[in-house]
């Protein structure tokens, strides 16, 4: 078991480090600043799984070409007084802020987007609504991680969701959760710390629990705690989708994948 030592780093230092790291792989300052805001918020709210833990992943995705660094702006494809359809890149914060603007003028704001996937902590977006005195909800798909009940292959994403509402005296309610048994980032943290994965977190191709060495080599998250609850992933996918027919995460990432 790896020993841990606590090192205190100010949030300003973390913010600056994230920006410099992203600039080093070609991301523009304004976009790196938004990511730094998100990562610092995750760390300060106790979500280490979605804080600096994710920085290496984000950098590698840019290096591999999976994530674009083009200095483009989101475009609104369709729009009404209360709804909008937006195309990427850099859409997540843009969509939430647009939904907030519409909610203030029309009473409700619903914005869906294309060109998006993992977007950090879902609660960060709901908090933006709370700051404006509104109820906020945020959903996204992710790369395929979930092994549905009685299945062996990962098909759906962790598809996180968040709901936030302001309360009295500056308090608030914030639900921020993966719709799998656990968020991928928490498995990653266990791997970094050489800690065992709890039973029911991840499974191998035969449906057996992974140990930490297996997880490091090939991860699949299994929702085995509540039978059939992968329907929640499908519901989340429906809520955040912008086109029909729906494309499953496994089809997005592996175009030649055959579902049987």
Automatic annotation (TrEMBL):
Record keyword Oxidoreductase present: yes
Pfam short name (any one): Ldh_2
GO molecular function: oxidoreductase activity
Database matches in InterPro entries: Mal/L-sulf/L-lact_DH-like_ah, Mal/L-sulf/L-lact_DH-like_NADP, Mal/L-sulfo/L-lacto_DH-like_sf, Malate/L-lactate_DH-like
Keyword Oxidoreductase among UniProt keywords: yes
Keywords: Oxidoreductase
Top-rank lineage group of the source organism: Eukaryota
Residues spanning the signal sequence: none
Family: Belongs to the LDH2/MDH2 oxidoreductase family.
Official protein name in the record: Malate dehydrogenase
